[in-house]
Amino acid sequence: MNFKCYISGLSDNTLNFNLCAPRSLNLGQTRQLQDLGVNKNYIKWRHTGAKDRGIEGFTLIELVVVVFIIGISSSIIFMSIGKGLLSREKGIVKEFYRGLLSARSFSIGSGRPVSFLIYSERREFGREDNEPHPIPEDVEIRGEDVEEYDDGIHAITFFPDGSSTGGIIYVLLPDGKEYEIDVSKFFGRIEVH
Predict the structure, then answer these.
(1) Rounded to whole angstroms, what are the CA distances from 152 to 79, 97, 109, 165, 181?
(2) pLDDT average, residue stretch 55-69
(3) What total of structural domains would you count in the chain?
(4) Same domain, 114 and 188
(5) Do residues 39 and 103 share a domain?
(6) What does DSSP assign to residue 47?
(7) Higher pLDDT, 21 or 139
(8) What CATH number has the domain bearing residue 143?
(9) Is residue 50 part of a domain?
(10) How confident is the model at residue 163 (pLDDT cuts 50, 70, 90)?
């Protein structure tokens, strides 16, 4: 059994020392130390832990805190990346919705009919008096009850009283998700499903 001895000073030309023993020292070992001439008042009971042996490390609390911080940070990062991907995919759907809403608002505000056009051959869409937006190659657009404005051009026309010619536009994204943009005939209400 190894013990650490600490010299505490000199008194009357006698060297005094304190003996630090581990907590597991039993009564027999204490007597052995006393037989060697160690006064029992000088035996200090001391637990020798990792720091006494020169081993350093992290406590369990420190490790739990670090793992917690890493977990929270990674979840925030993954959520923001996921939202970015989701918003990029839904961008075309949002553009269709905004274009339809713009055509309806402009019709009511100007007092004249305004059409939202989909150019199937050129793969573009937009309000008739605005610059059209491109439709990405990997996105499929289909329509139901949407009137054909001209050859290869489909339209939903909004009227100043708020009504429209109506129809449903289906937007199929590359990942297989399909969105339905429903335009009501009587009220011109636009809903995305």
Answers:
(1) 41, 21, 29, 18, 20
(2) 83
(3) 2
(4) yes
(5) no
(6) -
(7) 139
(8) 3.55.40.10
(9) no
(10) very high
